C-alpha cells in the first residue's frame, strides 16, 4: 500500500500541471533572490513562458458563481455552486492560503487534492469526482462534483431529527463503511466523519467528502485532535502532547468510532454525548461513562450490540480494530450485499432535482507565493469518437512537427560542429528529445485508452479538450521558436549548460540548507514538546495546589460565616430582649408618671378643699371673736403700753397674720404641686417621643 501511494504521489508530481506549478515557484524564487548573471539569464529566458502560462492557466474567471451565498462554510474557506464555460455545474471549495499555512497540519490541502485526483482517475464512486484544482495568490480552489441531494445533516434537519428506521440507517451506514474502507485502502484516515461530510448524490447514494482533515495512516508526525467534538474518539481527545517516538497516538480505528456515532444519531436522532465541548471531552475520557440507550426508541438487539462494539472506549476492543471484515460480518448487516449495494439497493431518499444547479437540499449558512507546489490539476478524461479522431490527427501533426524540429536540430548541430567542438549538450538534448517523444507517445496512448473508457460521461468536454490541445500546440510552437533562437548563437549552449550546473549546485546547496534547517526545526520541536509536557506538569501541580488552597480558604470562610451567623443571632436575640426590657421599663415609667400625676391632682384637690375649710373656719372664728371679745381699756404710761403683749396690736390682727401665713404656705405647696405636675407631663411627652 505504501509503494502504491508513493507511485500515486510521483505520478501526480510529475504531471504537466504539477511541473508548471514548480516552474512558477522557481521563477518566483529566482526573481526574489540576489541577482547574478545566471539568474538573470534564466529569468529573461523564461519570462515570456511565465507570462504565457499565467494567461493560459485555469483561474476563478473561468467559472460563474450560480448562488452568491455559500451552502457550506468552514474554518479555512467555503463551498459555492459554480458553472463552467461549458455550462457544467460544479461545487467549488475555496480555501484561504494564509489560514492553511498557519495551521499545524499544512499538508492537508495537498492530501485532499491527491486523494480526490486518485479516486477520480480510478473512477471511484464513493468520493466526489475532482474536475480541477488551481490556486492564485490568496486561495486554493477545488472544482468537484456537485452533490445535488445535499448531505446527511440536512436530511436529519428536514426530518426534524426524527430517528431513522433500522432499514434506512442500515443502508446509509453500510455505504459509509464501504467509503471508509476504500479510504483506508488508499492509506489514509479521515478523522472528521460526521453527517455534514456525507453527501447525497442525485441517485440517493452517498459520497464521503471534505477530505481536508485526512492524514496518512503510516505518518510519523505528531497527531493532534481534529474534527468535530461530538464525533471525536476518546483516544483522539487524549492525543495532545503524545510523542510519535512512542508510537502513533491513534490510528484508523478513530473513523470506526465516528461511524458508530453517526449510526447512533440516525437511530436515536441525537449523538450519545451532548453538551459543551468540555463536558463531552470529560465524558469521553471518563471510563465509567458508558453509552446510554434511550428506552423511548425501540431498536433491535443486533443494532444495540453493533453500537456498543463500535463505541468501545478501549480502541483495541473496538469493532473494526482488526479490520473492516469483522464489521461487515456483524449480524446487523446480514441482509446487506456488500458487492452490489451501490447498483442494486434502493436508497431511502432520492432527491427530486428540478435543475442541474438545484440547491433546495443544501443548508444556508448565515502570500503572494506558490507554497503548494503540485496542487494544480485538470481532469482530462473524455471518450468522444470525434475527439479521439482529433487526438489522433493532432498526434500525427505533433509527430510531424517533432520530426521537423529534429531535422532543424540536426541542421543546427551540424552548423555548430563546423564552428566549434561538439559538446555533450547536443547529445543530451537528443536524449531528452527522444525521452520527451517517448513520454508524449505513452501519454497520448494513455489518453486514447481513457478516451475509449469514458465515452458517455465526457461528451461535453470536446471543446475544452480542443482548446487545451490548441494551447499545448501553441506552447510547443513557442518552445520551438525559443529553441531556434537559443541555437542561433554559438556560445549559447555552453552558457546554458553552465547556468544549469550553477543552478544545480545552488539547488544542492539549498537542499542541504533545508535539511539542516529541518533538523534544527525538529530539535526545536522536540524541545518545545518537552517544554510543553513540563509546563503541563507544572500546570497540573499548580492547579492541585491552588485547589487545596481554595478548599482551605472556603472552609475557613464557611467557619467564619458560621461564627458571624451565631454572633448575629446572639446579638439579635440580645437586642430583642433589650428592646422588650426598654418597652417594659417605658411602660412602668409611664404608669408611675401617670400615677404621680393622679396623686398630684388628688393632693391639689385636697389642698384646695383644706384651704376652703380654713378660710371658712377663719371667717367663723373671726366673726365669733369679734362678737364675744370684751373691750379692755388701755391705761398707764406710754412705755408700759409698749412693753405689753398686745401693745400696738389687737388679737384680731394677730389671728389674721397667722391665717395669712398659713394661706401662703398652702399656696406655696399648691404651686410646688403644680410644678411637679408640669414636670411630670413633660417627662411623659419626652418618653412618648422617645
Query: Residue ranges: pLDDT <50 for 5 or more in a row?
Result: 364-369, 382-388, 634-649
CATH topology of the largest domain: Transferase(Phosphotransferase), domain 1
Q: Strand-and-helix sequence, N→C? A: HHHEEEEHHEEHHEEEEHHHHHHEHHHHHH
DSSP helical segment count:
19
What would CATH call the architecture of the largest domain? Answer: Orthogonal Bundle
- Mass-distribution shape: elongated
Cα gyration radius (Å):
55 Å
Percentage of residues in strands: 5-15%
Total domain modules? 4
CATH-defined superfamily of the largest domain: Transferase(Phosphotransferase) domain 1
What does this structure look like?
By secondary structure, the protein is an alpha+beta fold. It has helices at residues 2-13, 16-32, 37-56, 97-102, 108-121, 152-158, 166-185, 234-237, 253-268, 277-285, 301-310, 325-328, 341-344, 385-419, 424-453, 462-487, 492-628, 638-643, 651-689; strands at residues 63-65, 72-73, 77-84, 89-96, 130-135, 139-145, 188-189, 198-200, 206-208, 215-216, 377-378. Strands 1, 2, 3, 4, 5, 6 and 11 form a seven-stranded antiparallel beta sheet that branches. A hairpin with a 3-residue loop joins β5 and β6. α2 crosses α3 (37-56) and α3 (37-56) crosses α17. The longest helix has 137 residues, at 492-628. Mean pLDDT is 77; it is low at 364-369, 382-388 and 634-649.
Amino acid at each position: 500500500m505504501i509503494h502504491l501511494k508513493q507511485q500515486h504521489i510521483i505520478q501526480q508530481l510529475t504531471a504537466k500541471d504539477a511541473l508548471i506549478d514548480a516552474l512558477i515557484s522557481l521563477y518566483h524564487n529566482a526573481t526574489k533572490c540576489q541577482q547574478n548573471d545566471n539568474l538573470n539569464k534564466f529569468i529573461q529566458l523564461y519570462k515570456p513562458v511565465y507570462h504565457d502560462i499565467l494567461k493560459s492557466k485555469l483561474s476563478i474567471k473561468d467559472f460563474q458563481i450560480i448562488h452568491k451565498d455559500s451552502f457550506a462554510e468552514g474554518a479555512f474557506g467555503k463551498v459555492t455552486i459554480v458553472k463552467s464555460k461549458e455550462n457544467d455545474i460544479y461545487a467549488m471549495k475555496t480555501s484561504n492560503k494564509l489560514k492553511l499555512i498557519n495551521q499545524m497540519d499544512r499538508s492537508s490541502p495537498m492530501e485532499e487534492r491527491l486523494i480526490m485526483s486518485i479516486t477520480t482517475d480510478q473512477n471511484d464512486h464513493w468520493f466526489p469526482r475532482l474536475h480541477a484544482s488551481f490556486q492564485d495568490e490568496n486561495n486554493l480552489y477545488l472544482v468537484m462534483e456537485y452533490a445535488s441531494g445535499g448531505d446527511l445533516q440536512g436530511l436529519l434537519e428536514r426530518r426534524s431529527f426524527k430517528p431513522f428506521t433500522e432499514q434506512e440507517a442500515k443502508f446509509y451506514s453500510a455505504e459509509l463503511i464501504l467509503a471508509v474502507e476504500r479510504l483506508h485502502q488508499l492509506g489514509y484516515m479521515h478523522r472528521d466523519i460526521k453527517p455534514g461530510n456525507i453527501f447525497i448524490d442525485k441517485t440517493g447514494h452517498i459520497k464521503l467528502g471534505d477530505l481536508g482533515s485526512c492524514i496518512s495512516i503510516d505518518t510519523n508526525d505528531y497527531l493532534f485532535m481534529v474534527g468535530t467534538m461530538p464525533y471525536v474518539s476518546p483516544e483522539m481527545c487524549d492525543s495532545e502532547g503524545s510523542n510519535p517516538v512512542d508510537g502513533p497516538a491513534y490510528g484508523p480505528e478513530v473513523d470506526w468510532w465516528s461511524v458508530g456515532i453517526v449510526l447512533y444519531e440516525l437511530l436515536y436522532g441525537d449523538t450519545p454525548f451532548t453538551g459543551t465541548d468540555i463536558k463531552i471531552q470529560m465524558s469521553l475520557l471518563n471510563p465509567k461513562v458508558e453509552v446510554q440507550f434511550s428506552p423511548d426508541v425501540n431498536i433491535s438487539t443486533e443494532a444495540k450490540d453493533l453500537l456498543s462494539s463500535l463505541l468501545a472506549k478501549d480502541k483495541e476492543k473496538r469493532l473494526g480494530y482488526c479490520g473492516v471484515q469483522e464489521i461487515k460480518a456483524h449480524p446487523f448487516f446480514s441482509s446487506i450485499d456488500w458487492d452490489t449495494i451501490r447498483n442494486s439497493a434502493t436508497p431511502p431518499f432520492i432527491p427530486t432535482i428540478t435543475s442541474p444547479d438545484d440547491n433546495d437540499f443544501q443548508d444556508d449558512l448565515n502570500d503572494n507565493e506558490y507554497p503548494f507546489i503540485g496542487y494544480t490539476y485538470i481532469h482530462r478524461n473524455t471518450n468522444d469518437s470525434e475527439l479521439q479522431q482529433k487526438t489522433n490527427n493532432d498526434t500525427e501533426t505533433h509527430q510531424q512537427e517533432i520530426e521537423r524540429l529534429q531535422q532543424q536540430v540536426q541542421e543546427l548541430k551540424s552548423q555548430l560542429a563546423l564552428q566549434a567542438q561538439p559538446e555533450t549538450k547536443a547529445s543530451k538534448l537528443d536524449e531528452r528529445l527522444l525521452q520527451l517523444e517517448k513520454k508524449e507517445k505513452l501519454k497520448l496512448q494513455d489518453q486514447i485508452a481513457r478516451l475509449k473508457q469514458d465515452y458517455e460521461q465526457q461528451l461535453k468536454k470536446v471543446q475544452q479538450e480542443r482548446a487545451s490541445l490548441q494551447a499545448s500546440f501553441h506552447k510547443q510552437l513557442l518552445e520551438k521558436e525559443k529553441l531556434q533562437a537559443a541555437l542561433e548563437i554559438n556560445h549559447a549552449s555552453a552558457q546554458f549548460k553552465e547556468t544549469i550546473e550553477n543552478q544545480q549546485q545552488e539547488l544542492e546547496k539549498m537542499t542541504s540548507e533545508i535539511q539542516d534547517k529541518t533538523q534544527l526545526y525538529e530539535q526545536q520541536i522536540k524541545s518545545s514538546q518537552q517544554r510543553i509536557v513540563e509546563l503541563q506538569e507544572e500546570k497540573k501541580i499548580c492547579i492541585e495546589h491552588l485547589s487545596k488552597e481554595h478548599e482551605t480558604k472556603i472552609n475557613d470562610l464557611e467557619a467564619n460565616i458560621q461564627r458571624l451567623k451565631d454572633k448575629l443571632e446572639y446579638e439579635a436575640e440580645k437586642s430583642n430582649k433589650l428592646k422588650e426590657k426598654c418597652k417594659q421599663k417605658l411602660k412602668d415609667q409611664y404608669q408611675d408618671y401617670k400615677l404621680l400625676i393622679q396623686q398630684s391632682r388628688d393632693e391639689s384637690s385636697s389642698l384646695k378643699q383644706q384651704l376652703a375649710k380654713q378660710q371658712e373656719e377663719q371667717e367663723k372664728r373671726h366673726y365669733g371673736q369679734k362678737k364675744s371679745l370684751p373691750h379692755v381699756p388701755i391705761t398707764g404710761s406710754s412705755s408700759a403700753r409698749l412693753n405689753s403683749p398686745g401693745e400696738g396690736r389687737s388679737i384680731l390682727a394677730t389671728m389674721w397674720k397667722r391665717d395669712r401665713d398659713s394661706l401662703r404656705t398652702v399656696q406655696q405647696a399648691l404651686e410646688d404641686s403644680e410644678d411637679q405636675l408640669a414636670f411630670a407631663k413633660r417627662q411623659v411627652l419626652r418618653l412618648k417621643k422617645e
